[in-house]
Amino acid sequence: MGTHRISLFRDELMFIFPPNHTLAGKAYIDGHDIEGEDFITYTLTPEPDREIARLFRPSGRYPRWTAMVEMPEAIVELVAAGQGSSVLAGWAVRPAINAGRIIGARVGKDGIKVP
Length: 115
Description:
The chain has 115 residues and is an alpha/beta fold.
């Protein structure tokens, strides 16, 4: 006997920024859009199914790294306050998007879904 991994659900990553951001009207964000933008990241460890490996690295375009904050709620508050943009799982940002405090867009044309 051992342990078994069971995938419960998949959630789409969302690119988030304040409502007055220049990218606010875009349906999806690509590497060219984010180049040089202030970016708040959850982790600097590039995972194979996340934005660094699937969006930034392939495009050769990178945001300006401004902060690493390991708390999704704090990242949402910083983005809402206009301190930068970020990428987080949809479940973590939907309440703030629905409240109009931040704007969310798909990460890349096809989006990125994570377990």
